[in-house]
Records
---
Amino acid sequence: MIEQTINTFKNTDSSVKAGDLILSEEPFAYTLSSTENGNRCDYCLQKCKVRKCSGCQFVHYCGKSCQRAAWDDHKWECANIKKVAPKVIPDAARLLVKIINRLKYGDGTSYKVFYTRTSFRMWKDLMSHYSDLKKDKKRMEHFTSLCGVLYDFLNDISLPNTVDLMGLYGRMVINSFTILDNDLNSIGSGVYIAASIIDHSCNPNAVATFDGRKIIVRALVDMPKFDWKKIRISYIELMKTPFDRQKELLQSYYFVCQCEKCLNIEQLKYVHAAKCLKQECDNPVNVHWQKNCRLVIVEKCERIRRIHESILNGENNYDEELEDGNGDIQNGDDNTIENGVASDIANRVDESVGEINCDDKNVNKNVVCSKCGTKYPDESIEVFKEVMSCSETILLDMKNTSVAYMEVCKCCIQKQKGVLHPLNVFYAQILEQCFDAFVNVQLWQKACVYAEALLPCFRYHRPVSHLITLLTG
């Protein structure tokens, strides 16, 4: 290991063991979430008794040492925060201004972070995705609103021109990390120059955790030889269908993931699977339950660009982009795989004939378990479709309100049992919502019941989760 004032990195190509430190790094710029204001120190991010800054009456510190250490970064914003009070500056605006200040008046343009003995990254090495931002309706609206806030907030720092400012904004939103506490709750956000070199995979071999404001990247698996080009972390929540993961990555990071997990045919069989009616059989049974229910995009060619633009523009017509006039994608076009077709899925993908059409009236005829041969009667298919639709509605309602309804979740789980396969993502997501609800009200014994039921889902859909405690302990 090579020790630097700002980071530690692995400087060898020797083998790596699970749990080994790959990188630790201080942020280029960071901010405590406004939801944690008054609960944590704005400098070290530790949760403790804090005192307000006597100037702005907004920023808090745990002691004089942190206040002194933060002064160079805080002094320029102190008067401006006081000026706009009682308004609260949005977290993204504060982070962007911290970046502007460091680049304009600090060491931002010369700041180097080494990730090997001779290789380093600087702010200018981060990608701005300028052309993608211009097409992104939601991000452009956010950028415009932030510009208004910045003009009101700043009086001693002249803003860059619009093009340069959008470049800074793009580097910030694409490369920033959500800072988590030990319970994996979001407490802030920061930009980490070296860590931003690590690409995404839905089947990661490394994980990023945090010690206060410092990011720590550790190996999740043994590797015979360390190679930065092969290190992958997950940027997003993994317990979703491949299509939902791909869509989120496309919206947030402007790429369609084509990792081995997304394109794993065997795993696709489980994401929306029904349970075999034979109680002792654990094989997934695939039943078509919803029109145009996409499971994965297989990227092939130019048409992915149009899907990309449809999603960025907030349009819902990306299904149309996947289809031609006959409802099929022709050879060489982008493919999507729908639910209810697992028995023939491998052959269909290999043929590259495009989208699998599951709207045929005969699609759910002769549904049988491929392992034990148990037939799925029409009434069981209708029950499965009803439970899946109910689960989807409940999950969307909870997502829109950011609240987990304990009794609703419990009722839904009762409906799901014996109908949905134990590794079905809807079942896993409802279980997790129920677990979180019991944790929030500190009913620990009941939470443990759902935690135990969740473990197989975590190990299958989100393998990093059950290792994080070990790696951060």
---
Amino acid sequence: MRHASRGMLSNLKAITAPGCRCAVTTATQRVDHEVGNSTGGNNLIDIPGPNGIYALSYIGLRFQFKPFSKYDLRKFSTKMEAWKNQYGPIVRAKVGNRWSLYLFDPDDIEKVFRADQKYPERATLPILSVYEKRQKIPPSLANTNGIEWYTMRAPTQKVMLRPKAVTKYAPKLSKIADDFVLALENKDRLDNLPFKLMEYSAEGVGMLCFNTRLGCITPDNTVTPLMEYTKDYLDRLGNHFYKAIPSYMFYKTKYYLKFEEAADYLYSTADKHINRTLKDIQRASDDNAEYERNLLSDLLSTPGLTTQQVRRTITDVFIGGIDSTANTMTFLLFHLAKNQDKQDRLFKDLVEHVPKMGEIQEDTINKMPYLKACLKESFRMVFPIILSVAGVFCNPLCFRTMFSVILSVLGVFSIMLSV
């Protein structure tokens, strides 16, 4: 079965998977399908995976979790590990109303990552798509595909992806880190570390994007409205994937209204700071004064980006950056706590290079390769983006029959640990 499954992947992979980005597996792609000799005449439906009632659209996946089985839907990776043990390294499963392929072999995953194409086709976030449509606002970068996505994403590469583009903000973020530690100095224990790190990341993202402090870190540890709405937004964005029937698509459910309220607050907050920053930049230009640069000003000066595209990009960075940064830090600290010898080595590195007083400078970070190594290893152990990686197959080769295929590597990094 393992050998046959790998052969099937070879044919399916020949169609290619554009843009392995973070997404939920809900996109559709029509593909002509006629299987060659290398798969022994098999087609998509012959790839092993849950069948029968488990292959029913929307509700089929539900039957594989509590109360119908021992598996918890919120611990999806445990069910995927069971799939791997039962069916092998490639599993076909019905998620929503789409067929998905789950890969568990690192070699196969590498092939998928290397099949990246210029214009990705990824699944969108359903509840966010409904919100954007109802509010009549352009789709966010996370919900954009193809040429439209590339037009917005390509010009931002130099600004956002080069290490030097981020490390130059180290002195500003250093002050926020000091305030964060000071606020926690007198606490013996933290009952909700991920949320406290979310407050820290929100403050950092605010400084990075808008050159301003958002007031999320308070001396008395008071939870600000921004953090309450951020938590509500992220919780509902994540939990809506567990709904068997997405009734919010047809009318405004109570669940959706709470999401809409939180989203309205976050988008209006981002818009308020964008407008203020734009006015500050214009005022500095009119006075021939120097403006202290931030990510927003860097994007505005990037050729190929319109002001509207910058607004959409910076809003995505603001909202998405809060969650991803806090999530990354949570697991990094967890893995360091589980590996005391590595923690001790990193601590010695920090003592040697980080000044006891004053700001951390850009060159300080460049002197700590072991810190970067720890972060990369944490990324390997637990994938940094909760929604993981998915892409949609396209470009038919020798296929004749029509069907929808999505390549999903959902949660695959946690599964790789057991391979």
---
Amino acid sequence: MGNRNGVAFSLVSLALTFLLFASQSNAQQTVDPAIKVSPYCVKAIDKPFCTKIVKVADTWQEAITEVLSKAIMQTKMAEPIMANLLITLPSTTDAKLKDDIGSGCRKSYNDALQTLKEVEESLKTGDKTKSANTKISAAMTRLDDCEDEFKKIPMPTEFATFYEGSKKLLSTCLAVERTRPDLV
């Protein structure tokens, strides 16, 4: 019964992730020029997406906290999604390869999550060492390590959507971090 609940949670999480990024993709294609881009999103690749994430932020601290908390939440969803991913890989996939993919991606997402939590703590105390940018970049690299696990078989579409959504949030974190007042 616990496994069934985990799979159901995975599917719901995946559906929410897909809807968030699918709607953002559509919104990006039909950008309304009247929509003002947040000053914290001027360096973002997808400015409308970034602006939607940080829309209520009045300060840089609020903007980075908002986008970072969304990235942490997304990264936390990796565990149940990974469990579902391993079940949905083709039955012809070698068991060792499945284990390697599962453990490699789990480690990548866990490491990324730990790094993002370090950034969160550092920002609460003012990030005196100005390490947030480096650490967010490191978290992105950890996600790339997960992608590397799929060299022998294609990444399933559902997981690819989740992976791309995770990368998009981290890219947005970097963009907001680069507008930090004491760095500009």
---
Amino acid sequence: MLTKSAPLRLTALRISTPPAMTILHTHRNASTTTSSSSRTNPTSTAASPQPNQKLEWDTFLQLRKQRRRYNLISSIFTSALGTTAGISYLANKEIDPTQMIMGMDPIILFGLATVSCGALGWLAGPVLGSSAFSVVKRRVMGQINEREREFLQHIKKNRVDPSFQSFSNPVPDYYGEKIGSIKQYKQWLKDQRAYNRKSKNFL
């Protein structure tokens, strides 16, 4: 009876071992997947763009166009503010319409002073707009300034001689302020060549 029961115990042991092995196998697979995922995480973070990378030309020109909008909006704001301040100041002044001021009618003089306040506000607008743009884009201002220097070198190299301008042949965007994309830059180069052709024909 003992010899017959031994094989049964062995078979029972053989049958009961595979579940434990499968548990160990799944545990090893889980550990390998977690280790592989932990290894892949640094590569994903390394793929993020570096802050010192150069800006693409399209990106730089879009930012340059955006800065012009900042300057325009701030100029409108400061011009309105200057005009309002001038009106509020001059409205409290007592004037005698019958007496001349600096040889001019007081109403005309006050009108010119109000317009001057608005003009001064308009000229002060780009300073405020550029400062606001620098604060908003402070992380990439170094890259913008670097591209700006390169861009101005291209403009100086390819722009026309303004001494040959005329009423029928005006200078096409001498400082390149209207350039906001690569397509507009190519059009700007075409306009410079067209200006040179016209100036040579007149000579």
